[in-house]
Amino acid sequence: MSIYFTKDHEWINVEGNVGTVGITDYAQHALGDVVFVEVPEAGRGLTKGGDAAVVESVKAASEVYSPVSGTVVEGNAALAEQPAMVNEDPEGAAWFFKVELSNPAELDELMDRAAYDAFVAGLE
Amino acid sequence: MAETTTFSGNRALQIEEPLIFELGSAGRVGVDVADAPPVDEDRLSGLRRKAPIGLPDLSEPQVVRHYTRLSQKNYGIDTGFYPLGSCTMKHNPRLSEKMARLPGLVDLHPFQPQKTVQGALEVIDTLAHWLKGLTGMPAVAMSPAAGAHGEWCGLMAIRAYHDDHGENHRRRVLVPESAHGTNPASAAMCGYSVDPVPATDRGRVDVAALKAKLGPDVACIMVTNPNTCGLFEDEILEIAEATHAAGAFFYCDGANYNAIVGRVKVADLGVDAMHINLHKTFSTPHGGGGPGAGPTVLSEKLAPYAPLPFVVHDGDGLRMVEHPESSGGAKPFGRVKGYHGQFGVFIRALAYILSMGSDGLRQASSDAVLNANYLLARLGGTLTPSFEGPCMHEALFDDRFLKDSGVTTLDFAKALIDEGFHPMTMYFPLVVHGALLMEPTETESKETLDGYVEVVKALAAKAAAGGAADEFKAAPKYTPRRRLDETQAARSPVLRWKPGSNA
Amino acid sequence: MRYLPHTEADRRAMLAAIGAKDVDSLFRDVPAAARLDQPIDLPRGQSEMEVERALSRMAAKNLSAGSVPFFIGAGLYRHHVPASVDQLLTRGEFLTSYTPYQPEVSQGTLQYLFEFQSQVAMLTGMEVANASMYDGATACAEAAVMAARVTKRGKVILSGSLHPHWRETTETTLKYTGLECETLAPDPLAMEDLMGRVDSRTACVIVQNPGFFGGIKDLRPLAEECHAEGALLVVAVADPVSFGLIEPPGAMGADIVVAEGQSLGMGLQFGGPGLGLFATRDKYVRQMPGRLAGQTVDADGKRGFVLTLSTREQHIRREKATSNICTNSGLCALAFTMHLTLLGETGLVRLAELNHALAVRLETKLKRVKGVRVLGNSYFNEFALYLGEDKDASEVVDALAERGILGGVAASRFYPEWPELRPILLLAVTETTTESDMDALVAALTEVL
Question: Which class in CATH covers the domain with range A2-123?
Fold first, then answer.
């Protein structure tokens, strides 16, 4: 099991051929109180860097981009009911969707935890 | 906080007011409607309503009191200083209201025979004459209903021109990052893609970046001038020239036209199309969010594509052209709304323009710019101006002066409410961090501005002294309602009253 | 100048504080070639009296609707507006406030918008309504775009019952969006059959009810057909007074209802400003254009109202917004909601009954005019009168005007390209129409035909 990060503040946790995707604690903090989440339906094809989900606070709307290409296995239906979960547990229970990777080599272009932490520190 | 010490929950002139649905009592009525004459057989084809609607029944005195009390929970220009940047909140003359109620002007149907409405067509034509004269532009599309609607209208004319000239591959629109959100949204409605242009550290369009982005697929640029940072785009002639050389058009967002009326003809800036917000520049009331009007001036090239309807001089009378067949060879791109435009708004704008005249309009923009520069000068040492002046009709500051105070731009604005002022525009334009955009307009006297300056300075000093963050966050305290929970409103939307569910 | 407070002394003092020698120097960023040093060559300012005189002169050149027997409708109706509506509308706190972005000082506007949204949802039989659009025509166009967004489909079917201006506005709006319009022929007999036209590419069907020519239809079969194909049914309504008497679109299966709200509160105003009503189902609320007021609580836990779900809008979503609309028709919504609150359920139903009864009465009286007949067999307060094969309704309208009667509007004013519509005259009545107005029309028609 390994976790990777994007510059758009998504994380992906890969187990076997399936990645679980969410937004980072930094991202939820920047958005503020999350009021709405839209996750993709199972079966939808995703391309790396393409729109996959939507997350909104009162004053901001943001696309969640897919860190990898593949097919959606499951969207997290609980988020639609309880968008506040994104603020409470962004890198745990508030995952957005699971995706079956079509090209695992794409993971090589992502950051690991240490690289992402350094990236975020550089944004301040 | 703000503990209520009355039995009723009211605080003197601030009276708690229920929803109309909580005031009604079946059988009351606020309008006496005559009995319908007997009908042998109705013509409703069996589709008579089966269930009641559920509307509350109130009497006239209840209704008058309800809306009077609601009005007392609002801040208007009539109440006080309203320095909302980008919105031009200036005095709304009551003569305009009176004129807009002359039965001979308003009790008219748009489909009366044109011979019976020559005076109404004259109102439209006279206003159009002024708008063309002031801008130096040869044509104006009068029917757009608001600024954003005018933007779309102007872009539609551009798209129609390019289609008509075998250039329908031009689909990219260059929009500065500091633009109003309506600009990219309007472009998207015309099937255009939006390509953002960065700003320089002088708060202006990066001309080199813009030139680099121009190309054979660019339909137009959309530039607000004066721009949303309150600055005049001093390289505008170069921008226009490069744009035209690339075969693209220059759309100017006219939201800030109030700074330059009578001092600059936009035709002299190379503009091909610009909407004019009559509800800003020409003083028709904002009305809590409309109705506005956004007549759009057009260059010679774009004029033939103006939408229907429009007024033409025909023999010794005026004629409203309603169909392409009778448009005398024009190529209107279509129709943007029902009927003949925001006529009620036209009357008000015309009354204002005739009152001011060309001399008064020039004086108004001069005073508007003077007032903004006065705020910039007097507050410049206390707040942190984002750019060097002179500014045009609005002064822009950012939140550096609040650094380490624990007070945000929002908190600061809310504290101003308790002091009796409407806040400035916050967090816009997006190119400045924690923006505070103040547009004083020519309406405000020196005394009003001085009073405001003293309060802003006092609040800034209080924030800077430290330890006041909680107090700022608790503001406003003296309003009918304190800060409202917008997160709850968006997470669990309650968008209407339903029996028993809105307590 | 009476609207400008500065004295010359004020200006000098302010320039000194700025450190500028004159106002011209504040405009130094304007390229010299574009600077004007004189007022533009247009008339100078005038006193109140002079302006009043100038506009009164223009007013005197018009024949106002209230001064003669009047039968024009075609999407805009001359209803009586109670005096208190206009009196309250001029309160400065309503008139001179901005869009309610600062909710603590805008509870008045926000509460009436919330009440307005509730009333519109109730009238139309829908679940949710927005805080208004520019007018019925633009609301109709926005509905088409929204339906395409909801269904992710590209074809919009416009019924021949739709007001021609609403149709043209919708066609224009869709022109460059990549969506396709299928527009059906005008339908004066309300005989159009839409069944079978809806397919898997159809985003929505837009019908007007009562139709532009007056006919009222049971829309339930069409709604079923649309839903079976995965399309939406959009219903347009021109006179909201009709909601008092006719089964609401929501009860007949509509997914979006758009209407022109001018009938209540606003008077004719030569057709503008209008008030676009826009209502839909809860499940589509995030795809809806326009502003929304919502209920919440303040820091003390008291009920209050805010603008909400703003992330749909242009100031946040920019090119991805549901619409570019910003300014809408706030004050017109206030006029509408005040008029409707005065009427209440009791008043609106009585008003609708009266309108319909007077229309039936006019039809009865027209039986005295030889050779004319009402087309179709249903209507609310407006119907299409067929004047006879060789008659030109536009000439009849002019002849009536010469006799001091504003006797309806010729269908050919909207459809010059359809010669078969030339003999059709649209006639509308409201509670403002008197018995003697009708008799005058009947007498004059007898004379000119």
Answer: mainly beta
